[in-house]
Amino acid sequence: MLGPGDDAAVLSAPDGRVVVSTDVLIEGRHFRRDWSSGYDVGRKAAAQNLSDVAAMGATPTSIVVGLGIPADLPLTWLDELTDGFVDECATVGASVAGGDVTRCDLVVIGVTALGDLGGRAPVTRSGARPGHVVAVTGRLGYAAAGWALLEAGVPVDSPALREAVAGHRRPCPPYAMGPLAAELGASAMLDVSDGFLQDVGHIAEAAGVRVELDPRAFTVAEPVAAAAKELGADPLEWVLSGGEDHALAATFPPDVRLPASWQVVGRVVEGEGVLVYGREIGRRGWDHFR
Fold this sequence. Notes:
32% of the residues lie in helices and 23% in strands. It has 290 residues and is of the alpha+beta class. It folds into 2 domains: 19-116, CATH 3.30.1330.10; 133-276, PurM-like C-terminal domain (Phosphoribosyl-aminoimidazole Synthetase, Chain A, domain 2). The strands form 2 sheets. Strands 6-8-5-9-7-10 form a 6-stranded mixed sheet, sandwiched between helices. Strand 2 (59-69), helix 2 (75-90) and strand 3 form a beta-alpha-beta unit. Helix 3 packs across helix 4, helix 3 packs parallel to helix 7 and helix 4 (159-169) packs across helix 7. It is globular.
């Protein structure tokens, strides 16, 4: 209703409730300016917050941005960053409502995203029950594969490898699937930001259940497979443990008929924790303080 230019923005809340999520990105930890353009970073920063809103079953409506930047940051990089925020928000019909800028030694970006439930109940992590199925929609393994390629410094000289690197620089969350999952009756849902195994572990813990996964049910996309071949790595490790793709993982009652965009990869049973049938998994996901 009122955007940038005053001390605060004014947003409508037709549902009467507002879904809020926030994240911080720090240069050198979440992105590198020699690997990603300002536009890439803007898209990524907005995407990971908008995806959290979608994971609650809500439709993103706006973001506000807190930005710390060095005094010598090129203005073109800042313009690209802003364009990235705006364009990623545009993919879901959201707006950049405002923010704040301060001087800082590194680029630090804090994004707060807001969303509207449209009359639906929020989909939390605690609703999974024994007998429900576990499903995923969106990409898995791209960001981890792209990061590994950049870290190794290998030539990215094929379309598949370039697509993997692009997946690290700029995720493609399946935003529309969040509200759709809520309408279908998802019992629990979250954004896969720290690795599929680690994140579905949050569902298991919150609901007091056990999640059992079938590794054969996961799809290894060609860019992920190509990167693994190039580096001599196991692509399924990236699919199961790599983060920052911002896919959506959810549980559904067994009688829900899922569209093809959702892939059933496991089930919920009595117990606790996460079990992957017939496979030892090394790295379980990202933890800032591990």
